[in-house]
Write a structure and sequence with these properties.
336 residues, alpha/beta, Spore Coat Polysaccharide Biosynthesis Protein SpsA, Chain A, 2 domains, 9 strands, 18% strand
Length: 336
């Protein structure tokens, strides 16, 4: 989509008629220790300037959390995940129950700004838009580590430096702040229930879904913002490197499922355009007296290296899996 087309979409959204599509918000939840954040997420949806048609909280195989949510979260419909354990099946369960023309997703540890839905669904004024994603700001439980490069905020589920700063077409958006047409979701088959976030283990199931949506384009709308909680244990080098490795593995799995060219297009641009500039900036900051600049540059190199290793090992694993599934060749014996 060209910049002129994006501007056209924006103007169309601003001139949209009073009759707008209904929106169902789906929140997947699984952890008791996220209760405070879950409550804030539900409350933030209830406080929207553009009200949702319904809010559906799907509790993922946690009976105690399910009971408490049904007692206390009176602004939402509370249901249990009827599929396999994991965020993908939980979200699919929520969509199956939903009645809105648009389905929006919010994480259980995220909090939407009051105009989140208003700005998120504006792009749907263009019928060629299948889905829209918004900005995610990190809410650090502790101070942001000085070594943590903003180019890697994706490791904590937040928007990162290098993403568009105005409304723009993108390959994919993230499930902690996204919306898409219900018809497009159904046509794509929903989230893959054998791929995605399970507890603390994460794989890019949202990217994989976006790539299977072929009924329209995706937009990134940075004015539609949510805050995403970042607990202290995610502000460590150990988590940072482990998350980079997992992302690389996940992208390798997507490449095996959907093709390498499309599944790594955004990553190639990010690697060539964003990361070298960020490393150079960190080194210049270090030379100017900011020691943490060198640490940020080192973190970028280390994070990229771990992602590359994860991707390489993921490709080897996928190739081995395909080889194991390939039927063995047998010699034909022709009897006379």
């Amino acid at each position: 989509m060209s910049p002129a087309r994006v501007a056209q979409v924006t103007r169309a959204a601003q001139a949209a008629p009073a009759t707008r599509p209904t929106v169902s918000v789906v929140i997947a939840a699984y952890a008791d220790d996220r209760w405070t954040q879950l409550s804030e997420a539900v409350a933030s949806v209830a406080a929207q300037t553009r009200p949702a048609f319904e809010t559906i909280v799907v509790v993922d195989h946690n009976p105690d959390l399910l009971s408490r949510a049904r007692r206390e979260l009176t602004d939402a419909v509370i249901i249990a995940n009827v599929g396999v354990r994991g965020a993908s099946a939980a979200r699919n369960t929520g969509v199956a129950l939903s009645r809105g023309e648009i389905v929006a997703f919010l994480d259980d540890d995220a909090c939407a700004t009051p105009d989140w839905l208003e700005t998120l669904i504006a792009g749907f004024a263009d019928p060629t838009v299948a889905g829209v994603g918004g900005r995610v700001d990190p809410l650090w439980a502790t101070a942001r580590p000085r070594w943590f490069p903003r180019e890697f905020d994706w490791t904590v589920g937040a928007s990162y430096s290098g993403m568009p700063e105005t409304t723009a077409p993108v390959r994919n958006v993230w499930a902690n702040n996204m919306a898409l047409r219900r018809a497009a979701f159904d046509a794509a088959g929903g989230f893959r229930e054998d791929f995605g976030k399970l507890g603390a283990s994460s794989r890019p199931e949202d990217t994989e879904l976006c790539m299977r949506v072929t009924s329209g384009s995706w937009l990134y709308e940075p004015t539609s913002a949510v805050g995403h909680w970042v607990p202290a244990q995610r502000a460590t080098i150990r988590f940072f490197l482990r998350r980079c490795f997992a992302e690389g593995q996940g992208k390798a799995e997507i490449a095996a499922m959907d093709g390498a060219a499309k599944s790594t297009s955004t990553e190639r641009s990010y690697t060539v355009r964003v990361l070298p500039s960020a490393v150079g900036r960190g080194l210049r900051e270090a030379m100017a007296g900011d020691r943490s600049g060198a640490l940020r540059s080192a973190a970028i190199v280390g994070g990229f290296g771990m992602a590359a290793v994860g991707f390489a090992l993921g490709c080897v694993s996928a190739a081995s899996h395909r080889a194991a599934l390939r039927p063995a060749k047998t010699d034909l014996v022709v009897s006379r």
